[in-house]
Amino acid sequence: MSPGVYLDTPDDYTTIPMELINNERQGLSAVYSGDKEKALMAGGECAQRVRDLPAVQDLVDGIIKDAAGIIQNFHRFLPAT
């Protein structure tokens, strides 16, 4: 795997073994060709990007607050009449 893809750090492909890059290519190709035996199964790659783990109620409240702010500012995007 290319860790920089998931860690916000550009990879220097000269330091990653070519075998890993080729395995990743083959795994992705297998996904598109339907080869279930060789297909790359991604899981957990975004876990490094998790910065907090709010309670469900806090998460929902935050989403509602963000949505309300967006709705209140919709008028800024409407064409002048």
Structure notes:
There is one protein chain. With about 80 residues, the chain is an all-alpha fold. It contains three helices and no strands. The mean pLDDT is about 85. The protein is elongated. It has one domain (about 5-75).
Structure characteristics:
single chain, 81 residues, mainly alpha, 3 helices, 0% strand
The count of DSSP E runs of length 2 or more, i.e. the number of strands, is: 0
Q: What are the segments in which pLDDT stays under 50 over at least 5 consecutive residues?
A: none
SS-based class: mainly alpha
Radius of gyration equals 21 Å
The main pleated sheet reads as: none
In short:
The protein is mainly alpha-helical. It has helices at 4-7, 18-33, 56-72. The termini are far apart.
Fold topology:
Layout: H1 4-7, H2 18-33, H3 56-72
